[in-house]
């Protein structure tokens, strides 16, 4: 039976979205948490307004209830309050509690497997943190915290049952994540040690005990308790009984995988004309210096436009902490996404960022525990968003800006930032417009300050207008500001906290700008470029409704906006345009075609399109790209250069976040075909840049959209892309399953493309079956005249058979198609073929030609792959120093992109080169890191190769002894 309502994660109704307004969500959550029970009005008011209800709260609450009844059935008015008539099992939290109680009863009856399944079913109801998007600290304290505690206890109890069933190896990963998120839970450490011991990984079990003991002593000043000590003693007793360890030496453990990095400085530039704020600056400096032995968390709060961000950045610019300064703009972003950026800034490779929020929090705390950092968290929404982002190092300083005082943020000090006083406001106006002009018209300056309400944002905009209009007098601007119907037009301070101010500003805009704002209100992306609406967005930026984010990597100016403005724009599009659907439908064609064009730069002659040319912009005729291999350059009859291809790739990269968000926008608006097509168009970008999280997310939405549209081919295309993703992650079984699911949906050429990919999946296990698949696909492509498919099939066959002729033929075909990236892959296969045959000069020639193409295109990850092959060639030529250097260069890129499998391969090459140089210690270090990468990926083949090198290192070390 499916639950109808969900609070174990973001609030959900019938598997869909929850009510939009935050207070509606809080009200519904309060009723669901007390399903079929009366909830008094007083309690609801306290919950909805976090114990600070306004005088009109009761009447407003009735309005909220009325609005909720349009979305949810069963809300009844009862004496003194309200209740919702739903069965407890229809709400996931109540069902969770029932299932946990049932599992415990079954366990007491001795039915271990059934009890484990019961706990598993209960835990499967969780979709994230309880009440994740409910903005009520009262609800979280009263219900969220107990539910989270029960969840952790149930998880520990289920794992204990799994251990009784001999499933220790299966639960190690889950337990590592648990202790990472909750390092002070001794019982979780106990289960991890027991699981590792049961799995035969005794050295890791002993290492886990040392980690647990260090954590408890460091954090609490306590030695491990009896249960943890007993688990440790059992492992030691087993070691003593066997008389030896696991033979792995230093290879059995895990390093952190993160190397120390230099001081970071990600602060935005300070404002040159910053004025005043001496009191708050002194408070920040004084408070920070008082607590050098503990982390300090300071909150600057106040109304929009009061200059919180400017104060935080200005203060931070004058502070120097030894390990650097981090900056994150929060807004509506979930803490998991922000943590991903912060972890990368701290040196964590993309692929090493854990998928779950709890694991990311654990890793972030570990990386900051011994550093003194300054972290600026700008525009925080609530306490739940900030808590996971706080550094833990003694002496670290966090500056948080928010509209709220974040009263529930433990151990934090808050400072309410108001408007400027008269002297500060005049100084700010003079700093922007020019002090001479302000001194020349002091009365007009005072009037401007008064009409701006002493608000820094408004004053800055007024000063900027004067600076851009040297012919204006201050009196002229004061006169324009005097008409309150135009004041927000003049000041462009549309980002105020009061809705009436936003409405006044909106009504004062010309029709064209109002339509633009409504059009942007249909989007959920955090930033965008003008091409999206095909219009200049600068008028909205000048109106204060948008903010310029500067130039992106494609050279476009990007704009973002405050969340309140976005919400207001979304309301306007809903009320005046009937919702985002019509706006998105009008722009879908442009977005899809622009993305398809950019996709063609990554994958010319898109499979199934029949196209064999690249169509660059501003050209009337299509042109083929041909390769001048002798010169090592690409030429074209009419001047097309790889610069255009590189620029299109940069455009896709710059627009990635926008396009990912737009896939979801299309789907929510019911534009299912646009949603699945956009998801499909983005797959080469994700593959080239190893953006696996985005690839997973858009593929899931795209598949739902294709199925909702009843588009079988679209579903097959997305499944094919999903298989490519699984294959890139080394999950061959999942890749094969996706391809088998796609097979019955299509026929002809698309069926042949799926057959080709099945062959690629099978190649490692069954080369004969893989070859049959490649031959079948090649026959279909040749009969249909699909030149792209033929090129791919020839390359697959050539690589499998080690047939130079097939690879050379595929190379020529890619060149004829104008596909330098396809040609580069064929060259890499040729390089590997020549290397295997000990034809080192030919191998080097092919690898270097591949490298030149990658560099011209700006494809850093494929460039690193070519460097790694060159390292292997150098080692085969007997030049281990050069091999190690090239492999380290490749490793740096793999690590920055999070490509853990390739990083492991690079480490193996480094280890081999170290052995050639008789550097046993260097070989041990490299192979240990490689083993950690392969173990984390579950790559048995990589682990086997690493173990072979480890044994060789042990043998040589033994000879020395």
TrEMBL record:
<feature type="DNA-binding region" description="OmpR/PhoB-type">
    <location>
        <begin position="1"/>
        <end position="86"/>
    </location>
</feature>
<dbReference type="InterPro" id="IPR051677">
    <property type="entry name" value="AfsR-DnrI-RedD_regulator"/>
</dbReference>
<feature type="region of interest" description="Disordered">
    <location>
        <begin position="604"/>
        <end position="634"/>
    </location>
</feature>
<dbReference type="InterPro" id="IPR001867">
    <property type="entry name" value="OmpR/PhoB-type_DNA-bd"/>
</dbReference>
<protein>
    <submittedName>
        <fullName>BTAD domain-containing putative transcriptional regulator</fullName>
    </submittedName>
</protein>
<feature type="region of interest" description="Disordered">
    <location>
        <begin position="935"/>
        <end position="961"/>
    </location>
</feature>
<dbReference type="InterPro" id="IPR019734">
    <property type="entry name" value="TPR_rpt"/>
</dbReference>
<feature type="compositionally biased region" description="Basic and acidic residues">
    <location>
        <begin position="940"/>
        <end position="953"/>
    </location>
</feature>
<dbReference type="InterPro" id="IPR005158">
    <property type="entry name" value="BTAD"/>
</dbReference>
<feature type="domain" description="OmpR/PhoB-type">
    <location>
        <begin position="1"/>
        <end position="86"/>
    </location>
</feature>
<keyword id="KW-0804">Transcription</keyword>
<dbReference type="Pfam" id="PF03704">
    <property type="entry name" value="BTAD"/>
</dbReference>
<feature type="compositionally biased region" description="Basic and acidic residues">
    <location>
        <begin position="612"/>
        <end position="626"/>
    </location>
</feature>
<dbReference type="InterPro" id="IPR027417">
    <property type="entry name" value="P-loop_NTPase"/>
</dbReference>
<dbReference type="Pfam" id="PF00486">
    <property type="entry name" value="Trans_reg_C"/>
</dbReference>
<dbReference type="InterPro" id="IPR016032">
    <property type="entry name" value="Sig_transdc_resp-reg_C-effctor"/>
</dbReference>
<comment type="similarity">
    <text>Belongs to the AfsR/DnrI/RedD regulatory family.</text>
</comment>
<keyword id="KW-0238">DNA-binding</keyword>
<dbReference type="InterPro" id="IPR036388">
    <property type="entry name" value="WH-like_DNA-bd_sf"/>
</dbReference>
<dbReference type="InterPro" id="IPR011990">
    <property type="entry name" value="TPR-like_helical_dom_sf"/>
</dbReference>
<keyword id="KW-0805">Transcription regulation</keyword>
